[in-house]
Structures are given as C-alpha cells and as structure tokens.
Amino acid sequence: MKVVLFCGGYGMRMRNDRSDEIPKPMQMVGPRPLLWHIMRYYAHFGHTEFILCLGYGAAKIKEFFLDYHEEQSNDFVLHHDRIDLLRTDISDWSITFVDTGLESAIGERLRRVRKYLNGDPYFLANYADVLTDAPLDRVIERFHESGAAASILVVPPQSSFHCVDVAENGEIKEITPISQFPIWENGGYFVLSQEIFDLLPPGGDLVADVCQPLAGQGRLFGYRHEGFWKPADTFKERAELDDSYTHGIHPWTVWETPQPVQSS
Q: What is the DSSP string of 17-72?
C-alpha cells in the first residue's frame, strides 16, 4: 500500500522563530530525522511507496534524500576509498515528492496527491510527527475486517493535566488525571479507501470533512493501541524522544527488535 505523509505544515510549535527553516519532519531523533523513522516503520511492514505532501521546508526534505548517506545508519566496510554497505535501509523505497502548497489544509494536500495513488483502492496516511510501535499488519487487517471506509489508530489520552470537578460555590469535589478518562485520542495513523475522496471538498479537512461524517454513518473504524505512542509536536516532545533514543530506549524501531503483538 502507498503511504501518504503530510509534511508541509509550518510546525510553529517546533520552530525557534520564523527564520528557522528546518521543518518539523526534519527535526532529529538520534542520527536520523523524525520523517525517516516514520518511513522506516512503514517499510518494516512492507510499505515502501511513499508520497510526500510538501509545503514549508520542502527544500530541506528534498536535500536530505537527494544527498542521502546510508553509512550513517548502516554498518559498512571501507576498502581502498570505497564503501561497501553491509545492509541498506532505503534502496527499495520509492519516494514521490509533491508540492502541495504552503497554506493547504491536510485534506487539500491529500486531494492534490490523489493522482499519484494510481487508483489504488486502499492507502495509508500519516501526520508525520508521531512515533509508535503499533502492529501495522494487524491494524490493516482489522480495518478490512470492519468493512469501514476509513480507520484511525486511537490511543489513550497523553496529557499530564488534571480535570477538576468544581461546584458552583468553588468547592472542588474531585481531581482526576486526564489519562484516566475512558476516552481515546486520534493517533494520526490512517488506513483509507478511495471512497473518502467523495466526501473531501476543495480546501477541506481530513478529520472534520471525512472522518466525522463517516463516524456518523458507522463507517469509521478505530484501532485501539495501548502500547508505545508519542508525538513530536513540540521541542520538548522531540527532545524527550531524542534523549530516549540516546539511552537505548526506542520501542518504535520495530525493524530492530521484534515486538509483541498488541491487542485491539
């Protein structure tokens, strides 16, 4: 299945200021950008045809792949000034780079790359700012079993804030961590069918214009994942992922360590 990655937003919560030209997907986690980790995750499950929806910072993303150095993340032998790689990670990838506009909403970016899906009945999509160890094979299998038109990976609330039950007179009755509420968040990993384009208007939004109506029709499936899931939407979150990687804790690198199958 082809993988559509939305990596054209401004990412203001990740940038130092407006002169910072490094787009969010190119922020580093260990020796590689966030985008590479997400693509490597999909490739591990056999999905190696990528369509990048570019916008802000497009040149930086193109430069990274046009000047890609495999030796940075693979063992190799140096012999007479020649590098012989002992393994490779992107040699079988196909990457389509598409300028989808600086100001385009995610739904509009998706509309602008539809032709590159070549009519495939199903495809994958991702916000390109979240890492997970979710069992993608099982996610896709459950989607097909559901008969839904679209599927979203859903995860428990990640907020560290608390909800407060307060009476009219100001008396606090109860304080409960948001993470303990029986609700689920959009995890940003989608399995979609071509049917979604029938609902997606020009300039539209994938969640508001497609997922909401499908949910009302009972045709949106949610795969519940309680394993590892962490966004890199801010400097703090990206720094936490980078620090975790530095200390050898990177459960999202399912291509390195076999992971137990998670229930849904």
A: STT----GGGSEETTEEHHHHHHHHHHHTT--EEEEEE-TTHHHHHHHHHT--GGG
Tokens representing 102?
A: 């600086």
Is 105 within 8 Å of 61 (Cβ atoms)?
no
Could you say which residues of the chain have pLDDT below 50? Answer: 14-15, 17, 259-261, 263-264
Residue 261's φ and ψ, nearest 5 degrees, are -70, 130
Dihedral, 106, 112, 118, 119 alpha carbons, nearest 10: 70
Map 112-126 to HEC letters.
HCHHHHCCCCEEEEE
Token couple for 70: 């495999």
CA-based end-to-end distance of the chain: 22
In 3D, which of 31, 27, 47 has the Cα closest to residue 39? 47
Residue 55 Cα to chain centre, angstroms: 16
Cut 0.85: pTM above it: yes
| Residue 236: strand, helix, or coil | helix
Q: Which two tokens stand for residue 75?
A: 């063992």
Q: How far is it, in rounded angstroms, from Cα 253 to Cα 239?
A: 17
